[in-house]
User: Fold these one by one.
Assistant:
Number 1:
Amino acid sequence: MSGDALVAQAIAVLEADVAVRKCLQTLFTHELENADQAMPRYAAEYEKAIRRFAVDWSPPEEREAAK
Amino acid sequence: MKIRRLEIENYRQYRSLTLDLRDRSDVVIIVGSNGTGKTNLLNALIWCLYGREDYYAHQMDSSPLVNQKAVEEAGEGDLLTVSVSVEIAFNNGAEARILRSQEFRKGGGAAGPPEQKVLLLEDVNKGYKRVTNADHWIERWIPSRLEPYCLFDGERLDNFFRHAEAKKAEDAILQIAQIDLLKRLKEHLEKVAGDLYSRSAKESGGQDRGLAKKLDDDRAELEGLQKKIADEAKSVERYEDAVRKLDGKMGNISEITAAIKRRKALEDQLEQHKQNVSEAWHDLLQWAASTAPAALSYRALEGLAGTIARARDQREIPPRVAPAELVRMLEESACICTAPLKEGSPERTAIEQLLSRYERVNELGEAFLDLEPGLNIATAQVRASAQTSKALMRRIDDWEHGQESADEELSALKSRLAGHEDVEVQQTQSALNKAKEALETATRELDYKKYRARELREAMARTEREIEKLDAVADKAKELQRQARFGRECLRVAESIYKQLTNQVRERVAVSLQDHFQRMIWKHESIQSVSIDERYNVSVKSRHGFEILPDLAAGERECLALAFSLALGEISGYELPMVIDTPMGRLNPDVQGYVAGVLAKTTEDLEGGHNHQLIMLMTETEYNPDVARILSGRHPRVFKIVFDEGEAASGLVESGALAVAK
């Protein structure tokens, strides 16, 4: 298994919220694509991913209340 | 994956070169004298793949890639093309060609940026098809992060475990497994989440309570601190490097100091030997003087003792004779025939003389017998003293031999110590002390800044919690806050993966490193374990549990670095060809053969029945008959770089495996 696959798989098999997992996958792909850059631009891309996946995520207290 | 063909045009000292490895290419040896272009073959390959040259000599720094002879022959303003093309074959049978070229105009330098093409052979009948986004494909096939572990200079092997390997090991492991990208992801996520919190505070009541400002201030301070931490870390690295170098020098100096001590000890020893030899000679002379007379008459004494012993044994010495009849005749003054024996008569005189002779014979016989024990003692003493002389001679021989050895070692030490002065030792020691002090200060500063950064992070987390607790929160602020919390949650999870992966990969590398290293070294039974601890310190323990990494010989250290490269290769999941420039250039000739064997072995027994490809660029000294004999078992292709002075260009000639070895 190659290095990137190693990290990608670790993220894929995470026992975490789906939204968190998907967000991390998106962010890691972004880092992979910019691996050759010393100071990659990241803020906009990160905010975009967070905005996109945070919609499907609930803070613990909300999850508790929903139960 | 294997390199099948390399074509070079107008690149540095190569006007036109083709290295065709379609037929048999597991072990390839390219032999060339210094300056003929070995390193530039490696540079050409790296340039073709990544557009840079990693191993140029300093004088090449600013010189253009284009072959100088080609420039001379071209007309003013003519365009010259430098190109390097590499054909690679994948384990699944697919083939690809990577071509990089750049144009230069005579008198005007580079005429344009380098152009890179990647051609993929999808079908032999249809030929190569050009693919777009060359960098992407190359990064996919031969990731640039793996380059230091598959295309490298032998110096790297030699240096890797020489000094403070922990940082290098950590960087290599994190980079190879791309965990460094996960680290970058964490850093980015932390900043973005913090920013979202701050914006949410601005949108809510937090602004009024100064929370947003506090968060912004803390974040600004944290960012400033992180920059300072990075700078400080670089300073620490610089000082560590200086300390390492000086330590290395001090190591030599310690050796020199030890050699000076040894010289003194040898001089004392030599003096002692001389004294011992002189005393032994004196003893010998004394012995000679005291035993010389006995020794000189030894043969005669021994002969006499022998004669007596023989005479005694054969009863030649008559027993004591007691002529009672003759005595009675004299006492009675009458012969046995009754004739009177008057005083003074001739008969009486004759009997008296006979008696006297009898007495003499008896005396002589007794004297002989009395002499025998004395003679035996005397000869035994002479024999014993001969042993003493032999022992003395042996002693002299031993001392003289010791003196010779001490003399030899001393003269070797003297020539080694020539030119090393005490001043140099003192200066290095003082520079080392200063560097250590600076390192200590920088490390203290770094630790403090890290502590402060931790404090700030905690403060920011507190502020963020306060923001979360704000009652009157606008919708927009609420949404931003939710995103910020989500960002923090992602960060928490990323941190947990990071921790888990680093441990996992480190342990896998350590297991593989131990496996490769133990297979490589001949005294593997004396190695108990090779491990990498949580701080990435590589440790080699003897079977008695002692740390022996610093005591490994140069060849063993090179094997450890090679084992590390192979372990990283395994983790990377790629089976790339290994191209090493002067792999054994820094090793003693007596271990070159051994390391050559180890290198050749690394190409064997890969899973799937295919072998690694190993291309070694060697000097003529490295490719000596011993090395050639050892490598011949792997049936290498051997090429010799020939430099044509008229053309000012190098070319390759294939040769028999042993024919090139000198």
Number 2:
Amino acid sequence: MIVGTRKPLAEIQDMVKKYDRLLLAGCDTCVAECASGGQREVAELAAALQMGFRLAGQEKDIQETSVDRQCVHEFLLDVVEAAQERDAVLSLACGAGVQALAARLPETPVFPALNTQFIGETAERGLWLENCRGCGNCMLGLTGGICPVSRCAKSLLNGPCGGARAGLCEINLSMKVDPEVPCAWLQIYDRLQALGELDRLLKPTPPKDWSYGDASGPRRVIRPDQQAGG
Amino acid sequence: MNSQVTIVVLACLQAVPQPELFSSALEQGGLKARVIREPCSSKVEVFQMLRTLADEADLLWVVGCPPEACQLVEGSTRMAKRVGHAQEYLQEIGLEPERLGMVYIPFGDQEIISATVKEIQQRAQTLGINPARAGTGVPKEQA
């Protein structure tokens, strides 16, 4: 899923201060799971903004809405309708959702309330970890289901480096991280050893072709079988 | 503008089976009070606390059982974390986090109920009207 975090309230307030009638639009999939942009968070932000603006001497008309997926145009019909009577929309979706909504609302300003962080996993309650960088050429089949591109601080394709200590990545030495960051390559080794498949690592992995990733401009996926029309 | 300080209490019925005790005691002290009965304090959400402060409350208090007595095992612990999160939000808004309080009360403990009422009264006297709630007469400034 896409993990996002709310922007500081002051930044949000500054973006929308000149608009009187606001629509706060949440997204009930990824950013609801990471407790930053679902229905609950929309309600929290609406109340917080209302209070923040009152303290600044302004009274705003704030409406709340939420859809299952803001990044899918079919889900946006209700938001688009609700936005017709609004001066601006504050989206609590990821960057993709904000842009899909903005594309549907050519005459209404749309602002992001979140900072989109990464593709991640809910590791435990209240802890989300980055574990996919969308490199476009997945090597998890080689590395036992642990991604060195996203989980190794150096994105090494052949590891570990010389900095690992006691199972931990050397970034723990310079950064105070809680929980500490494990060495992804030691995790890969342990995993493959447990599977009895260490031989996967006998052949060095060649340099990665990053043209499948974000090195070749905006990516797109086209599936003719899914497209409308003949 | 209503100059009477309004208190809202979100009370876990497992901790205080007769939560109207709060409203009667607070009203006797000259405050306006509303008690909302909760099946467990963990039912209280951050948005509910913020909305209540935005719409009607000058002070908001959440009452739960002591964590070790919580029938839903971690309900009181969750409530305390949510109260903490809501207080951080209040700080960001620029409103006194002390407008939101919480207390653990062992089942029907009269002594702690009385002490809580006293604490709320003192806090109400110190903080007064919540300038961020609806109807406080904040002059509207057109952007």
